Amino acid sequence: MRSLRLLLVLAFLFLPHSVEAKRYWPSQTLTNWTLSLNNGVAYISSSQFADHCNYSRGQINMSGTEFNRALYAYALSAKAKGKSLRYVIDNTQTTCIITGLQEVN
Hints:
DUF306 domain-containing protein, 2 helices, signal
């Protein structure tokens, strides 16, 4: 058992750490964006989206969690008020899942 732990620790130390995903706020604010809902997924689309995101959009999976519903409601409110948005995504995914939003004046 002790040798297994040592082996796992050594394996972890020598694995490349560049494969770790990183969530971040892209520097580009979305000033011109649309919000749509299709088959249980909300999409925020904009030509200003991060380059690595397919179709210039991010998605909020409406999986029934309060957090995801709150993100959608927040985006809907921002759209109704004509606000710009900042968003949080993962830097390694091309299907960009939005995990945070912020209104910007």
